[in-house]
Design a protein that fits this description.
- There is one protein chain.
- By secondary structure, the protein is mainly beta.
- The protein folds into 2 domains: 47-146, Tumour Suppressor Smad4 (Sandwich); 155-276, no CATH class.
- It has 2 helices and 18 strands.
- A hairpin with a 2-residue loop joins strand 14 and strand 15.
- The N and C termini lie far apart (60 Å).
């Protein structure tokens, strides 16, 4: 009988160890995928410029006389120009500059309009750029696939993996509030669809975070006391799965990560709303990148 109990106890701890190892692997795999995405063509490390368009001819190229000056040696001195008319943007290229739109050489093309389902990608050599809109502002987001930021990237320091930071939370929906105001680094305030409040406990103290509704997942923009000296000052992001039938999901702070603005000045990150700034330290997930 004693031998049977001992075997059961040993088996129990073996399962725990396996689960712990599996969880560590899960977080390490998540981090590896995160690095791949950051370094990819659509990642944040290759951003080389963000230029806001005026209602006039907006010239671009490497020449200093252009309104938008692209990185030296990446394109001709006079690449062409953009014309913004309201919410429409047309690209006109210099005939000596073989610029492509979605892989096709063009000299003139409508590259943005209000009914666009997606903005086309413009390219020349190692450069890629597209049009983005932030409320009433329309701009050109420029990428350089040979950016030094990619070559110099050495990963992101993280807190030690601790499964205690994978916390069960209940989503409480608010029928009266469909959106909440979210401010971004441009100073704009955007009404954003909310899924509800995630209510959870840490050390027997209850906290809550507003969760944004991103169709397939819940998205949380939060701040905490580590922002003062250990993590990115403007807060971090974390995703959670949609809740089960009883309204429960998990907030895994080991997957808390830096916003794009931690890597580049050419991003337009949302900031955590006041109610999402926790009065405690969340010592999990990514630490501040660089300096």
């Amino acid at each position: 009988m004693k031998k049977t109990i001992l075997i059961f106890i040993l088996s129990f701890y073996v399962v725990l160890a396996q689960t712990s190892n599996e969880y560590i692997k899960e977080i390490n795999d998540w981090d590896a995928n995160r690095v791949v995405r950051l370094k990819s063509e659509t990642g944040w490390l290759n951003l080389a410029g963000l230029f806001w368009l005026d209602e006039e001819k907006n010239t671009f190229g490497t020449g200093q006389e252009n309104k938008f000056v692209f990185p030296a040696g990446t394109i001709t001195e006079k690449g062409g120009y953009f014309v913004r008319e309201g919410s429409k943007v047309t690209l006109v290229t210099n005939y000596k500059t073989d610029i492509k739109v979605n892989g096709i050489s063009i000299q003139e093309a409508l590259v943005f309009h209000p009914d666009s389902s997606s903005a086309p990608t413009m390219s020349y050599g190692d450069l890629r750029w597209s049009i983005i809109q932030r409320e009433d502002r329309i701009g050109v987001r420029l990428r350089n696939l040979k950016s030094e930021n990619i070559a110099h990237f050495k990963g992101i320091e993280r807190f030690p993996i601790d499964d205690n930071w994978r916390i069960k939370a209940k989503l409480i929906k608010d029928k009266n509030n469909k959106t909440i105001p979210i401010k971004n680094v441009l100073g704009q305030t955007i009404q954003t669809k909310i899924a509800g409040k995630l209510v959870f406990s840490i050390n027997n103290i209850e906290y809550q975070l507003d969760a944004l509704d991103e169709e397939e997942e819940l998205f949380v923009i939060f701040g905490d006391k580590t922002n003062e000296d250990e993590t990115y000052p403007a807060g971090r992001f974390v995703y959670a799965s949609k809740p089960d039938k009883l309204g429960f999901t998990y907030l895994d702070f080991n997957k808390a990560y830096n916003p794009p603005c931690a890597f580049t000045p050419f991003a337009t990150c949302p900031l955590p709303p006041k109610q999402n700034i926790l009065p405690i330290k969340i010592t999990a997930g990514e630490k501040v990148y660089g300096h």
